[in-house]
């Protein structure tokens, strides 16, 4: 049975995924529901218990002091600090450029005397979850915190596992977090969503995490906002006969080492390249230090699809809607213009996902599991609200009141009709 639905005409598999990345979530859902309920009712005490259970440690004080933050920064070796600040500068510059495209609309008049507009209002308090994960991802705090500072968020709360690498604390500090807490997992999401004696309640939670973090974000959504529900990482590469098998294999394995559930795939119009990439992945795994993780991802979720032509390749790519989509074709810019479903696009063989993952400037928090069909990744706009407003002159009331009153009457909404008519009657009485 196919693990991928809606396979377009003209697509066959050289290598098919052995497993589906969307498994039964019932055990995680039940466990997270209990965690959220406990923390909502018992606050810090429950956070401490779950930290001890899941992370093996529970700090006496959750918040990282300013002295500890500064010590973490001082402990960075000079090159790591320089590289971190390089990434911060690039992410900041791109976020500022994006923010410049979101302008306030001060006074639009669809009719005489009817004035409308919108303001760009930063979210008051944001919670940034920073995963500790399998590796100390020094770029993770940069991607969630820096755009929040550019957007003008009032207060930025960062949570990361208590056993996270000290460099992660330094990254949160350098990126601009106002407060940093040593709390990880679903308990961090609960603490930020509901608030405790130690952790303030936030208005929106952003940032990736494991299945428990993801499920916790899903369950708290409503009273607080979230950025998205991100699953395991994904990379797909579109290539024709000009693709380089060694480069493609290298990029696939670079992403596969994130997690054993990473989805990695090649979609190509050239069967010879498909076979060469499969052989090259096997060869590179023999010397890759992270082969235990990358090899498992390739074994269970690796895919190579061979397409009859370019149209089939584009159609199948849009079905997958990969988180990271690289284009290795003869004319990558022309191909890129024809694609519509992806998290972030890497055009041409020189644009590797790893550059964006670490320091190039675009955000690495992106939609997975085909969510690229309807949303993009985390960006500066996620930290702001576009809130509309309107005001009317007497001329404007004369324009809109009659049709509004008639429509309300047609709908049987007498209260609406009266509200619409009232101001018109007052103007006519004058």
From TrEMBL:
<feature type="binding site">
    <location>
        <position position="129"/>
    </location>
    <ligand>
        <name>NAD(+)</name>
    </ligand>
</feature>
<dbReference type="InterPro" id="IPR022695">
    <property type="entry name" value="Histidinol_DH_monofunct"/>
</dbReference>
<feature type="binding site">
    <location>
        <position position="411"/>
    </location>
    <ligand>
        <name>substrate</name>
    </ligand>
</feature>
<feature type="binding site">
    <location>
        <position position="210"/>
    </location>
    <ligand>
        <name>NAD(+)</name>
    </ligand>
</feature>
<dbReference type="Pfam" id="PF00815">
    <property type="entry name" value="Histidinol_dh"/>
</dbReference>
<feature type="binding site">
    <location>
        <position position="416"/>
    </location>
    <ligand>
        <name>Zn(2+)</name>
    </ligand>
</feature>
<keyword id="KW-0560">Oxidoreductase</keyword>
<feature type="binding site">
    <location>
        <position position="357"/>
    </location>
    <ligand>
        <name>Zn(2+)</name>
    </ligand>
</feature>
<dbReference type="InterPro" id="IPR012131">
    <property type="entry name" value="Hstdl_DH"/>
</dbReference>
<dbReference type="GO" id="GO:0004399">
    <property type="term" value="F:histidinol dehydrogenase activity"/>
</dbReference>
<dbReference type="GO" id="GO:0005829">
    <property type="term" value="C:cytosol"/>
</dbReference>
<comment type="similarity">
    <text>Belongs to the histidinol dehydrogenase family.</text>
</comment>
<feature type="binding site">
    <location>
        <position position="258"/>
    </location>
    <ligand>
        <name>substrate</name>
    </ligand>
</feature>
<feature type="binding site">
    <location>
        <position position="187"/>
    </location>
    <ligand>
        <name>NAD(+)</name>
    </ligand>
</feature>
<feature type="binding site">
    <location>
        <position position="357"/>
    </location>
    <ligand>
        <name>substrate</name>
    </ligand>
</feature>
<feature type="binding site">
    <location>
        <position position="258"/>
    </location>
    <ligand>
        <name>Zn(2+)</name>
    </ligand>
</feature>
<keyword id="KW-0862">Zinc</keyword>
<keyword id="KW-0520">NAD</keyword>
<protein>
    <recommendedName>
        <fullName>Histidinol dehydrogenase homolog</fullName>
    </recommendedName>
</protein>
<dbReference type="GO" id="GO:0046872">
    <property type="term" value="F:metal ion binding"/>
</dbReference>
<dbReference type="GO" id="GO:0000105">
    <property type="term" value="P:L-histidine biosynthetic process"/>
</dbReference>
<keyword id="KW-0479">Metal-binding</keyword>
<feature type="binding site">
    <location>
        <position position="255"/>
    </location>
    <ligand>
        <name>Zn(2+)</name>
    </ligand>
</feature>
<dbReference type="InterPro" id="IPR016161">
    <property type="entry name" value="Ald_DH/histidinol_DH"/>
</dbReference>
<feature type="binding site">
    <location>
        <position position="416"/>
    </location>
    <ligand>
        <name>substrate</name>
    </ligand>
</feature>
<feature type="binding site">
    <location>
        <position position="233"/>
    </location>
    <ligand>
        <name>substrate</name>
    </ligand>
</feature>
<feature type="binding site">
    <location>
        <position position="324"/>
    </location>
    <ligand>
        <name>substrate</name>
    </ligand>
</feature>
<feature type="active site" description="Proton acceptor">
    <location>
        <position position="323"/>
    </location>
</feature>
<dbReference type="GO" id="GO:0051287">
    <property type="term" value="F:NAD binding"/>
</dbReference>
<feature type="active site" description="Proton acceptor">
    <location>
        <position position="324"/>
    </location>
</feature>
<feature type="binding site">
    <location>
        <position position="255"/>
    </location>
    <ligand>
        <name>substrate</name>
    </ligand>
</feature>
């Amino acid at each position: 049975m196919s693990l991928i639905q809606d396979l377009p005409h003209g697509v066959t598999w050289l290598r098919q995924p052995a497993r589906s990345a969307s498994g039964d979530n019932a055990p995680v859902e039940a466990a997270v529901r209990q965690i959220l309920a406990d923390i909502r009712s018992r606050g810090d005490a429950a956070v401490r218990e779950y930290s001890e259970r899941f992370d093996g440690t529970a700090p006496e004080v959750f918040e990282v002091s300013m002295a500890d933050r500064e010590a973490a920064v001082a402990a960075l070796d000079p090159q790591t600090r320089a590289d971190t600040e390089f990434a911060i500068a690039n992410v900041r510059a791109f976020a500022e450029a994006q923010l410049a495209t979101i302008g306030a609309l001060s006074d639009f008049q669809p009719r005489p005397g009817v004035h409308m507009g919108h303001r760009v209002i930063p979210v008051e308090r944001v919670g940034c979850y920073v995963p500790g994960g399998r590796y100390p991802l020094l770029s993770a705090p940069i991607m969630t915190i820096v755009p929040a500072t550019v957007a003008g968020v009032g207060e930025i709360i960062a949570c990361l596992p208590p056993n996270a690498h000290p460099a992660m604390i330094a990254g949160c500090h350098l990126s601009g977090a106002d407060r940093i807490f040593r709390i990880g997992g679903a308990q961090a999401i609960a603490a930020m969503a509901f608030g405790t004696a130690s952790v303030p309640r936030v208005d929106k939670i952003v940032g990736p995490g494991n299945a428990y973090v993801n499920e916790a974000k899903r369950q708290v959504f409503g009273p607080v906002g979230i950025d998205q529900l991100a699953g395991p990482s994904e990379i797909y590469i579109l290539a024709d006969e000009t693709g380089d098998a060694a480069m493609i294999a290298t990029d696939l394995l670079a992403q596969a080492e994130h997690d054993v559930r990473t989805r990695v795939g090649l979609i190509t119009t050239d069967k010879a390249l498909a076979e060469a990439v499969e052989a090259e992945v096997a060869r590179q795994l023999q010397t890759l230090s992270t082969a235990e993780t990358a090899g498992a991802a390739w074994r269970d979720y690796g895919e190579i699809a061979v397409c009859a032509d370019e149209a089939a390749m584009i159609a199948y790519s849009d079905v997958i809607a990969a988180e990271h989509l690289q284009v290795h074709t003869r004319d990558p810019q022309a191909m890129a213009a024809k694609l519509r479903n992806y998290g972030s696009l890497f055009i041409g063989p020189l644009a590797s996902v790893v550059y964006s993952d670490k320091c190039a400037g675009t955000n690495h928090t992106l939609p997975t599991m085909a969510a690229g069909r309807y949303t993009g990744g985390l960006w500066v706009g996620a930290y702001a609200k576009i809130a509309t407003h309107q005001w009317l002159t007497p001329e404007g009331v004369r324009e809109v009141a009659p049709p509004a009153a008639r429509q309300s009457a047609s709908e049987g909404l007498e209260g609406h009709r009266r509200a619409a008519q009232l101001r018109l009657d007052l103007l006519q009485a004058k």
